[in-house]
Amino acid sequence: MAWWSTGWFGSGGGNSGSGGSFPGYGMVGSPTGKSLLDILMADDIEPGADPSYQICKALLLYHPLGQKMTEAPVVMAQSQQREITVSGAPERVAEAFLEEAKKLNTTGIDKIARNHMNISRAYGIATLALLVEGQNSKSKLDLWKLGDTQRGISFNVFDPLNTSGSLVLNQQPNAMDFLKPRGPVVVGGQMYDRSHVRVLMHESPIYIAYTTSAFGFVGRSVYQRALYPMKTFVQSMITDDMITRKAGLLIAKMKQPGPVVTQLQQNQMALKRDLLKHGQTNQVLGISTEEDIETLNMMNIDGAAGFARTNVLKNIATAADMPAFFLENETLVSGFGEGEEDARNIARYVDSVREEMCPTYDFLDEVCMYRAWNPSFYKTIQKQYSQQYGEMNYETAFMEWKHGFKSSWPSLLIEPDSERVNTDDVKLKAAIALAQVLLQLPIIDPMNKIEVLRFLQDAINESRMLFPNGMNLDFEQLLNFAEQQQQQMEQQQAMGMPGAPDGGGEQEPKPPAPFSMRDAQRMVEQMNTEHGIRRRAANLLEIVRG
Predict the structure, then answer these.
(1) Conformational region of residue 211, where left means phi above 0, alpha means psi within -120 to 50, and beta covers everything else
(2) What's the pLDDT tens digit per position in 302-329?
(3) Hey, how many other C-beta atoms are within 10 angstroms of the C-beta on 469?
(4) Is 324 helix (H, G, I), strand (E, B) or coil?
(5) pTM for this structure?
(6) In the prediction, which pLDDT does 109 show?
(7) How far apart are CA 119 and CA 91, in angstroms?
(8) Whole-angstrom Cα distance, residue 7 to residue 154?
C-alpha cells in the first residue's frame, strides 16, 4: 500500500504512536523521523510520478537539494541591490523609498519577495496578501490610506493549502478568465479582494493539467520533473554513508591454529584482534609471516560512485531547468567578472528569474511608495524645495514621482574596472563630440545651448569611474550669461562692429578639431580634480559665448 493511501491522519500505517501519526512521517517532536526516507524510497515513485503537497513539503524541509532548487536562484538574483531612480525628483525622494523598503513588514522588500518566490517554486503557486489595519480585506484596497504610518500593515505569503479551492482556474476556453487567477482569494473563510493579493505561479498553467501539489489547474512545482532523480540522490547518500562506515574496516588474515580449536587458542586470536583494533601511531604490532592485515579494497567504488553522483545532479538540474552550478555548490573557474560562457549562461538564467519576480516587486514597490512618500514627508520636501514644490499639492507631486519611478537590476556580469573605464571613455567621447557639433550650429538659441550642457553634465556624472566627484553647474546663471552674450552679438551685428558675422572685421574661428583619445586622456586627468572641473566649466562657457 502506498504511504499516502491512508490519508493525512490515522492510526494505521506510518509510525505508530498514541493519538495517530502522519503516515510516512516521523512522529511530531521525534528527532529520528524518517519522513524523507520513507517518502522517497517508496516503490510508487517512478519516472513521471506526480509529487503531492506533502511530498513537496518534505522535499523542501528535508531533502539536501530541496531548498537549493527553490531558493538558490532567487538568492543569486537578489545578490545585487536594485538601482532605484525617480526622474525629475530630488535625491531625497529615492533615498526615502530605499529606507522604507529595508524596513517594510520588519523584514524588507527583498525577503518578502524571496519568500513569495520560494513558495511558488516549491508548490507551483503562491499568494502574497496585504493586510491593512482598519481596512476590510473584502473591499478594494485604498492606496492613499497607506500613507497613514499609524496604520499597521502586514504581508502574508499563502501556500496552496491555505488558498485551496479559490485558485483552481477556469478551464472554459472561451471564458475571459481562462487559465487566469481572477476573482477573490479565500483563506480560512476570509475573503481577499484582488487588489489585496498577488498570485505568482511557477510555469504557466496547461489546459486540463491538474497540479496535485497546488490543488488546481495552475503552475507546477520545481520538483515535479525532478522527483525520481531526487530519490536517486538520496540513494547516493546511503551509498556515501556505507562507504564511510566501511572505509575504516580492517581485514586480518590470521593463520588458523588447526582443525581443533581450544579455548586458549580462541582467546589468543581474540587478543590479536583487540590489539589490532586499538593499535595506533608509534606502536608496533607483531604478526607472523603467514598473516596479513589490510583494509577493504574500494578502489573501483570512487569512479563509479562519483560518476553516478555527478549524473544525478545533472539530471536534477536538467529536470528543474536550471544550471547545475546551483546544485553542485562549486565556484566558477574564471568567476563572473571574466565573461566566460558558463558565467554568461548563469547570468541569463538569473535574468529570467528576475523577470519572474517583477509582479511581486511591482506590488511591493507601489505599497512602499505610499508608505515612504507620505504627507508628512512631502511637507519636508516642500520646505527644502519651496521653489519647485511650494505651490504643488501632495497628490500631484506623488503621481509625478510615481510615474518617474524606475527600478532596474545591475548586470550580474561585473566588468573589471579597466573595462568599465574604457566603456565610460567611449561614451564620454561620443557625448562631447555631439555637444561640440550642436553648440557650433548657428541656429541654436541660448536655451537649447543650456540643454546641451545639461545633457553633457549628466553624461559626465554617470561616469563615476572617471569622475567620482561629479559636476554641478548653475544653469540658471549660465542661461542669463548666454542671453546677455546673445544680445551683445546682435547689437554688434546691427552696428557693423568688427567681429560681427556681417561686418568686415575679423573672421570667426574655425570649428575645433574632432575629439581624440589624447584629448580624452588629458580631460580625464584634469577632471579628476576640483581645479580641473572649474577649468572645464570655463571652457564650456567659452563655447556658449560662441
Answers:
(1) beta
(2) 788 888 888 999 999 999 999 988 888 6
(3) 13
(4) coil
(5) 0.69
(6) 95
(7) 35
(8) 34
